[in-house]
Structures are given as C-alpha cells and as structure tokens.
Amino acid sequence: MVLNPHVQVRAQEELDTVLGQATLPNVSDMGRLPYVKNLIEELWRLYPVFPLDDNYRGYDIEKGTTIIGNIWAMGRDPRYYKDPEAFNPDRYLDHSVPRPPVFGWGRRKCPGVHFAEASAFITIASLLATFTFSKKRNSSAGEIVPKIEVERNSLVLELKPFDFEFKTRSKEHHRIILEASVYEE
User: Fold this and answer.
1) Largest CA distance in the chain
2) Residue 21: helix, strand or coil by DSSP?
3) Predicted local confidence at residue 65, as pLDDT
4) C-beta atoms surrounding 102 within 10 Å
5) What is the reported pLDDT for 180?
6) Which residues of the chain register pLDDT less than 50?
7) Residue 110 labeled ligand binder
8) What is the spatial distance between Cα 160 and Cα 152, in angstroms, rounded to a whole number?
9) The whole model's pTM is what?
10) Which of these, 69, 74, 72, lies nearest to 109 by C-alpha position?
11) Mind listing the pLDDT tens digit for each residue in 76-108?
12) C-alpha dihedral over 97, 99, 101, 102, to 10 degrees?
C-alpha cells in the first residue's frame, strides 16, 4: 500500500461504503468486498510464498522426486497478466485472467486453502479498514520511496524490512482498534 496509495484509497472506499466506518470486516463480508479480495489475489500473484526458480534441463528427475510448480513465473507470464510487474487488483475484473495458483492445484491442493484465504482476508481488510499506510518522510528529502526486496535463501519468500509510516484513519478507527483489542471471557 505504501507504493500503491491509490489502491489503498480504493480499498478503503469499498470498506467504508459496504461496512461503514464503525465496523470491522468479518469472513462473511468477503463476497461483498470484491476489490479487497482482488487486492489479496494480486498480492499473492506478485509475491507468492514459494518463489522458486526451477532448472531441470540437463538434470535427471528420479522416480519419487517432488516437483514444485514455479508459481512465481506463472504469475508473471505476460500472456495471462498484462504488465505483470505492476500491482493491479483490477486485472481480476476480467474473469478470463487466471487466479494465481498459490495453494497448488489438483489433488495436491493445500487442504487449508479456505482457512488461509479467510485469515488473509480478515487481516488485510481489518488493517485497511483502520490504518493508512504511507511512505516514510524526513525533513530534508521528503517522502522516502522504499525498495521492496525479497530474501530468497530458502524455499519460502521473505520480504526484507523497509521503512514506512502508518496511522489510524480517524479517532473513530482508533476507538474500534482499542475495542477489538480488549479480550473478554
């Protein structure tokens, strides 16, 4: 959201229109928030959890070898994703654009896909509903554009830390956050 503030604004407008400003989203709201859902799909396409490059030519693949599909390359195929390096949740308004296969496919598809989708939706939609994320500012240079880099030293993609700012969207949103953080038995 730091690098795509227009996407953040549009998602917040959808959240405010559908839920109002005094309600946090829940899983049952997912179908009523298509832009937020598309935003999450775009995050998964652009930054998949398993970004492996696969070099198989010249190597024997023995019986029983596990093969992992290169979802990083699939999500950047310009035949399916126009301007594949751009973050654009609107691309999924065209139903012919494939959803990224971040949870696998076929019989080997992750059995926890629905839980993962619901968890990601609640987390991301709640953050967007209550906070505004922006580039860090300093007095001499103004806005500092962060460089988004990934660590590729293992099977799982990990974002390197970068500086940004966030603040509650309003006093009402601050109140909602405080109420949601109170644990009641």
Assistant:
1) 61
2) coil
3) 64
4) 21
5) 86
6) 51-55
7) yes
8) 10
9) 0.78
10) 69
11) 999 999 999 999 999 999 999 998 888 888 877
12) 140
| Domain layout of the chain by residue ranges | 5-130
Q: Name the residue among 38, 36, 42 with its Cα closest to residue 12.
A: 36
Token pair, residue 146, equals 């962060």
* Burial of 1 per CB tally in 10 Å (0-12, 13-18, 19+): buried
Residue 178 sits at φ, ψ, to 5 deg, of -65, -40
Closest CA to 85 of 96, 72, 66: 72
Which pLDDT does position 143 carry in this prediction? 87
Query: How many CB atoms within 10 Å of residue 165?
Result: 13
pLDDT given for residue 55 in this prediction:
43
Q: State the residue for tokens 């939706």.
A: 121
End-to-end Cα, the chain, rounded Å: 35
Total number of residues shown for the chain: 185
The amino acid at residue 85 is E
pLDDT in tens, 53-66: 444 567 666 666 66
Q: Find out whether 129 and 12 touch, Cβ atoms under 8 Å.
A: yes
